[in-house]
Amino acid sequence: MDTVLSGIRSTGHLHLGNYFGALKNFVKIQDDYRCFFFIADLHSLTTHPHPDDFHSSVRTILAEYLAAGLDPEKSAIYIQSDVPEISELYVLLNMISYVGELERTVTFKEKVRQNPNNVNAGLLTYPVLMASDILIHRAQWVPVGKDQEQHLELARVFARRFNNMYGADIFPEPHNLVFTGGAVKVPGLDGSGKMGKSNGNGIYLYDDEKTITKKVMKAVTDSGPTEPDSPMPEVIANLFTLLGLVSDRSTVDYFTEKWNDCSIRYGDLKKQLAADICKVTLPIRERIDAIYNDESYLSEVVASGREKARASAAATLALVKQAVGFKAF
Ligand code: TYM
Is residue 198 scored above 90 in pLDDT? Predict the structure, then answer.
């Protein structure tokens, strides 16, 4: 059985980008692969969260994973920092990753632009830690959204480089596990780029109906089409992309026709979009608080995930250390 691994950073609540780009697929594949799903708490430290918030963010993502349908009986669900083998592999992979290739990563360049006062080394080597997460379980498949594909490409580079350098065949090359339609990029509601945690343009699994409706009704639009079959500007195409994720085919066709013959009313489109988002997220939301507050259940889940993940990680690390030349005295 092939191995699947993926994770999400523990920053705030999960948004629709995390859900449609990642979590929804995690839930779908649990019966078909050996699955590892984790919470990337070490990665979240690049932005220096306050110590009082650090643990509760991990707990939030864990509760949202479980509320969405991740099953600890089927998958190893664990916290990244609970598996020290990952950090050990990270040290070793840092030795074979080059500053130049890391500096060229689009996400790194973006972070430098956004936060010029916090260009820390952890940010630069973020893809090395991510590769360690993946390679420590020798995963073949990594379900992620489109924005993570360059990181995945680097994980393949490091896997190949390590195997070649040490003449070992330890790491398979990991690939994105994509479903019909290819890798997903969920747009934000502000008409600019992707939905993200820090962009303030997101809808969260934890939002209630009122909040979702308010956010969608305020989404950026234009003054409407003036000629039949005119090309769709990006802000409107974004709303249709969201509609395509949450609504059925006939709804999308209905509004596409209305766009094409210039009779579309954005208010109607948004009302429908908000209702259909609620249909997807509210049943998940309903379960989050009860799970979040069930301390004994959460600690059981984390302990069993840690055990499964550490067993798999230790086996890989032993092979890696042997290949590099470590020997016991
Ligand atoms: P993160 O926490 O930013 O996002 C988690 C997952 O959600 C996807 N995603 C999106 N997909 C489509 N459209 C969007 N607008 C959108 N926003 C987020 C991301 O593609 C990702 O799949 N580096 C990772 C976490 C990580 C990881 C790993 C993932 C650490 N180690 C190992 C896989 C394997 C990250 O920051 O994701």
Answer: no
